[in-house]
Amino acid sequence: MKKVLVIVPFPMSEENRDQRRAQLQAVQLGPDISFEFESVRVAPRNYVSASDMAIADIGVLEAGLEAEKRGYDAVCIDTMSDSGMAALRSELSIPVIAPGRFSMLTALMLGKKFSIIALWPHWRHIYEKNLNELGLWHSCASIRGLDLTPNNQSLLAGKEEDVFPALEQLALTCIEEDGADVILLGSTTMHQAHAYLSEKLPVPVVNPGPLTYKLAEALLGLELTHSRKSYPTSPKPKPEVLHAMLDTAATFEH
């Protein structure tokens, strides 16, 4: 049995983690793989500023640092920001997968141009980072968002009647006016809208969280992981320093 750690990028209760765990229901996985969801100890309130992103990177890195020693075969990071992915790849030899860049690359296996739909305009910098790093601006038809402050704990629960149709109209604008032939959900917090949008829209809709689970399954089956040439290890890692920092920082989260 292969075991995958899914890092939830905010401290939260087990009940709220269930909202994230529900993403497993959206994808068919084999009987020989399991997924365990754990929260970071420290995170920004949301991913708006450069300092927010630095805190997010540290929180995710610390949460996954011991994953390989603990017997996990892969790590998935449950945020489109890809926070901590590069850092964890430098520490671990097992696959580390994040949804931001992989959802964009998957979209290009399905169509020629994709659009990203989001809940919040303040997330735009997250998508721009991956588009810049991957050189994919020519393949991005548009980035459009609602002006809805996200709830990282309850996600879209209780807002379905208002939010789902609004996302549908946003996606249709991307398709009809911007030329998108694939739609990407701009956050794993939007996964509850995927089934609705897939039924309503005339193009594929990529659900980023479940995509990472299938990619983890595929990489493990293919016995592939990231290149050490791209993600070199530190000549003198200091995990004890990182854990000590987070021991103190975690007290401010309560």
UniProtKB/TrEMBL annotation:
Gene3D superfamilies: 3.40.50.12500. Coiled coil: none annotated. Pfam families: Asp_Glu_race. GO terms for molecular function: amino-acid racemase activity. It comes from the Bacteria. PANTHER family: PROTEIN DCG1. Belongs to the HyuE racemase family. This is Hydrogenase expression protein HupH. It comes from Pseudooceanicola atlanticus.
